[in-house]
Amino acid sequence: MSFFINGQTITRKFSSTSISSANETDFERGVRMHREGNNIGALTEFTKVIKKDSTNHQAYENSRANSYFYSEYF
Question: Is residue 67 in a domain?
């Protein structure tokens, strides 16, 4: 899966399994849930990402979640 964020294409490989990894971020969990057809769960995870405090890493996760959310739902 590729994302185009801030002029960069970011490619991320996601597992197709429905088992959550302990290292899975809220964003990755949201993508997995969306792929499994759990759109409510996916939206919940993306909302958690967007609401978190904006540390440098979290700001990056926010942009990923927003980009994915809008490309999939709008």
Answer: yes
**pLDDT digit string (tens) for 18-73?**
455 667 777 788 888 888 888 888 888 877 776 665 555 566 666 777 777 666 65
Q: For 40, what's the count of Cα atoms within 13 Å in the CB-facing half-sphere?
A: 0
Q: Count structural domains, the chain.
A: 1
- Strand stretches in the chain, DSSP E: 2-5, 8-11
Q: Is residue 16 part of a domain?
A: no
Q: Show the domain range for 67.
A: 25-74
Q: Where are the alpha helices (DSSP H) in 1-74?
A: 26-35, 39-51, 56-73
Max CA separation in the chain (angstroms): 32
In a domain? residue 13: no
Beta bridge partners, 4, equal 9
pTM (2 d.p.): 0.42
